[in-house]
Every structure is written in C-alpha cells, then in structure tokens.
Amino acid sequence: MDRWAGKVAVVTGASAGIGAAIAESLVEAGVQVVGLARRLERLEALAASLKGTPGKLYPRQCDVRKEEELLDAFKWVKAELGGVDILVNNAGIGKHKKIIEDDVDSFRSILEVNVLAMAIGIREAVASMKSRNVEGYIININSVLGHASSPRTNYPTSIYAPSKYAVTSLTETVRQELAVDPQNKIKITSISPGLVKTEITAGIPNVDKIFETVPYLEPKNIAEAILYVLGTRSAVQVTELTIYPAAKRLQNNHKNIQTIIRIEDENSFTRDCLGTLKINGEVYTNKTKQGHESLIREGHDRDLGECKNRSHDVENSRRSSCSGTKIRKTFQEVRRVVTKHMVTFKNRRVMDRWAGKIAVVTGASAGIGAAIAESLVEAGVQVVGLARRLEKLEALTASLKGTPGKLYPRKCDVRKEEELLDAFKWVKAEFGGVDILVNNAGISNSKKIIDDNVDSFRGILEVNVLAMAIATREAIASMKSRDVEGHIVNINSIRGHPGSPNPNFPTSMYIPSKFAVTAMTETVRQELAADSNNKIRITSISPGFTKTDIVQASNVPNADNFFESIPHLDAKDIANATLYVLGARNIVQVTELTIRPIGQLLD
C-alpha cells in the first residue's frame, strides 16, 4: 500500500458497515479519505476516532441519489485535495420485498443508489485521474447476487439482485473502455461478498436469529479484500473477487505462534543490540542474528491480523539493552519501516497458521506452479511438488534451501491415475496427510477444435479436469479424516468464464476444460457447504495472460515473441493471489479471484 500513502480516496456510504470499515482501513494505511454519506454525525464520529492515524478522514454529507450533491462532492475534492486517486463505490440499498409486490419508488431508489450513482462516480473519478495522468483505482462493491446464482426466494430483495447484475456489467464495460487506451493507468475491480452483517440486512424479519444460524462475513473482511487489490503491483488488475463466508466459523488457533515482521533496512538498529518497540501496549523486540534484523512480538496470544497496530501508538521506542549504544536511525525512520509491514498485513490473517502444514502443488516444476511452490515454502509450508520433470523440481528444491519451509520433489504425471494416487499415499505415509492442494497442472494446444485430434482432446481433459477431480477428492478425504482446516486452490483461467474467446488465439479444448473447472469449483463448494462442520475452503483463481512456458508447450506460432506485444501477468502475481486467499481469515472463503494484466482487452 506504500504507493497510495498520501493519495486521495472517495468512499461512498462511508458512515457505517462496509463503507466505514473500508474508510478506517484506508486511513490507517495512510490514505486521505473523503467519506460520503447522508449521516454526517456518524462520519464525524468515525473521523474523530481515527485522529492520529497516518491518514485522515474528511467527512462530507452527501446523498448519492441527488446528482448535484454527488457532483459537488467531486468538485470539493478537486478544489481542496487536487483530485481523486481511489474511488470505492460502496453505497447500496435493498428492500425486503418481492419484485412483483414492490412499488415504483422503491425500484427507482435502488437503481439510483446502486447503479446510477455508481456510474456518475466512475465517470467523475476517471475524468479526474485522466486529467492529472495519475495511477487510479476504482472498486465497486458488488454482491454474489450480481452473478449467475439463484436469489433465495425466502429472502426477497426487490430489484437488488438485478441492480447488482448491472454492477457486474458496468465494471466489465468500463474495464474494456479503459483497456483500449494503451496509456491507461486506471484499474477497476468488482468485489462481490456473500452475506455480510451490516445495517442493510436490518429489514429482514428475525435477522438476529438468522445470523445465529448461518455463516456470514464481517465488514472488515471486505476491507481486507480492498487492501489486497490496492496492494497488487501496477500491472496487475484483479477484475473480480468473490467472497463467501466459510461454512463454519472456525476458532482462532494461533496461540504461541511467533509473528515476525522483517525489517528491510539492515541499519534500522545497531547490530548486536536488543531494541524494543511498544505498540498498543504490546512489546516488540529487535533481535539481531547473523546481520538479519526482525521485530518479534512478545506475548503471541493474538495473530497480527487481529491487532490494530498504528504507527502513532508507538512509544518508548528508543530503549536499548546495549548500554551506551544508540539506534543509528531516527525513530521516525524505524517506525516507517515497521508501519509499512504492519499495514501490509493488518486486518487480515497472515500465513502463520499454515506454517509447518503440508501442501501439494501439481505442475510445480515451472511457471505458475513453481512460483506458488516457492512462495509457500518461503512462508514456512512443507510443499510436495508434483511434475513430470523431476530435474526441474530438484533444481527448484536446491534453490530454496535455508527457507522456513521445504520443497519435496516428486515425479508424477497427473494424466496417470495410479501415479497421482501413489503421490497422495506417499504424502499420507510420510506426513500424515495434505492440508493445502493447489491444482495448477494444465495444458493447451494452439489449434481450433474443428482441426484438432482426439488424443489432444483427451490429453487436455485428463490433465485440466480429470486429474483435478481426482486430486480434489483425495485431498478432501485426507482433510476430513483428520478433521483439519484445509484449502483447495484451483488455478483456472479468465477463459473459464463467459466472455469472447480471442479468435486469433485458438486453444482447442482448453476453454471448455476451464469452464469445467469453474463448475467443478462451485459444485465442490456447495457439496462442502452442506456440512455444517466443514472446515475446508475452495477457491478458483482465474488469471489472464500470464508469462509461462505453456505458450511454447502449446506450439503457439512465434511463441518466443508472444509476450512482447501484449499486456501480461507474471507467475509471481498468481502466487501472491494464492497467498492472499490462503491468508484470509478462516471465516472468509474467496470463491473466485479473477486477475488480468491492466490493458488486456480480449480474453
């Protein structure tokens, strides 16, 4: 989030619920936030509670239904702060009535708040960003009801679901409008939560009892998602992030886990001394070992994601156990480094709970699979990497020596059922079972379906679909038999979702196979959700063009020069997305994360 520090964000509906949580998180990350809402007194109370944080909240009364008030707000931002860099379209309303029984005023209000105000806000924000030629970000708070799912008829919401379908289309339409400009620096994301405990549910009869019996998200979970998408590198655009509550609200089990925050500046503290920082009453110590400094929290009774550590709370920082030795850098510089890392992981669960756990990653010898395996090992996970090319796995293993986790290379052709099953048997025998499965292995072919052969069809389906189904079945059986928290991550593709396939880039059965992955992920999610004691989550990550060797392997013409002329992601971007979904709180299930390179137009 460093590049957004000092920048200006506009958040609509910022007085309560999701909007207030987003505003708070952004201010704590150093952003200057203009909060818009009708209830000025609530905004002012929130602003007062955030005094002393790195950023600032500017409360401004605004009814987004009234065009002139919304336009005046953007004029004020331009006059007072220079313009907007981040827009979070959060304001939304619904009504607990069936469409066939609701009135026109209700229809009009829902459309004006949920769709029209969003369109106006986007237009004004994009104009501000373009006029100053700055990097910008627009985030639309959507809903799972804005996608292909059946609204629950026992909880009618009038035209709320249709309005959210409009938000889905609005987001993608604007993305494409921006993508045609090769100089575009503006990104746009739809975040689609499931049931969130906010005031918008107040009209539902017996709502308190409902929240006692069904899984739900908290507003801060959505704020965490926003920090993630804003924190992606400039070339990466998360276009859709869908979040459901997990079927079971798991208890935190992080006691006695040591949280470490790395210090980037080796000279932040004098070597061979023990410095301490006190933050929100919690003591952090700097212990030097072989020239590598880290801050280690004393007390380890809460994970870092639960602590609201703010830079202004740091006190008594200049104490040192080394008599006569002074900290070389000023406290403000030390605090800056510490705050940077706290903000990065604040309000979301870090990877601590997966340290020492067992992950299986298919297709781990190169590309996305290798990047994911490397990131997991560096996070302390014990990773079993499966691939046909054992020598590449062994080379990757050697490069990761000395990291917190370990990579175990195992030769496996996932097309061969017996090899895949043997791999899971080996994991059980050696480690007790699997806790994380990353279904990454995938192949393609640069031929049209009407020109390709049966062996190619079979190969794509066996690797991309059948092997995934087998591995998912085996992993879930392992997780359930040990009654452990588990996570399945399916590496999908944007071509596994409705859109226009690029006619200049045929891929045989690859697209149908990825549609099958989309359906499989949702089917398994629903199968797991039927069990109230379920602890297993499943996620589809759907990247756009990613620079990997699948292009060469698919016999694409001019493969070596393929990525020179088109926007693309790096494998590390997908690994970062994987760490995000694994690191989300265990009540949060990211069901779909769609990620494109900024500027990608055709799928």
Proportion of residues in extended strands? 15-25%
Query: Rg, please?
Result: 25 Å
CATH class bucket of the largest domain: Alpha Beta
Main pleated-sheet profile: 14 strands, mixed
Number of helices: 15
Distance between the termini: 28 Å
Shape: globular
CATH fold type of the largest domain: Rossmann fold
Name the structural class. alpha/beta
The CATH H-level homologous superfamily of the largest domain: NAD(P)-binding Rossmann-like Domain
Question: Low-confidence spans: pLDDT under 50, at least 5 residues?
Answer: 248-349
The CATH architecture assignment of the largest domain turns out to be: 3-Layer(aba) Sandwich
Description:
- With 603 residues, the protein is an alpha/beta fold.
- The chain has three domains: 2-231, 3-Layer(aba) Sandwich (Rossmann fold), CATH 3.40.50; 260-345, no CATH class; 351-597, Rossmann fold.
- It contains 15 helices and 21 strands.
- The protein has helices at residues 17-28, 40-49, 67-81, 104-132, 160-179, 207-213, 219-231, 331-345, 367-378, 390-399, 417-431, 454-482, 510-529, 550-553, 571-583; strands at residues 8-12, 32-37, 56-61, 86-89, 136-141, 186-193, 236-245, 260-262, 275-279, 282-286, 294-297, 314-320, 358-362, 382-387, 406-411, 436-439, 486-491, 536-543, 546-547, 569-570, 588-597.
- It has a 14-stranded mixed sheet with strand order 3-2-1-4-5-6-7-21-18-17-16-13-14-15, sandwiched between helices. Strands 8-11-10-9-12 form a five-stranded antiparallel sheet, covered by helices on one side. A two-stranded parallel sheet has the order 19-20.
- Helix 5 links the parallel strand 5 and strand 6 (186-193).
- Helix 3 runs parallel beside helix 4 (104-132).
- The longest helix is centred in the N-terminal third of the chain and has 29 residues, at 104-132.
- The radius of gyration is 25 Å and the shape is globular.
- Mean pLDDT is 80; it is low at 248-349.
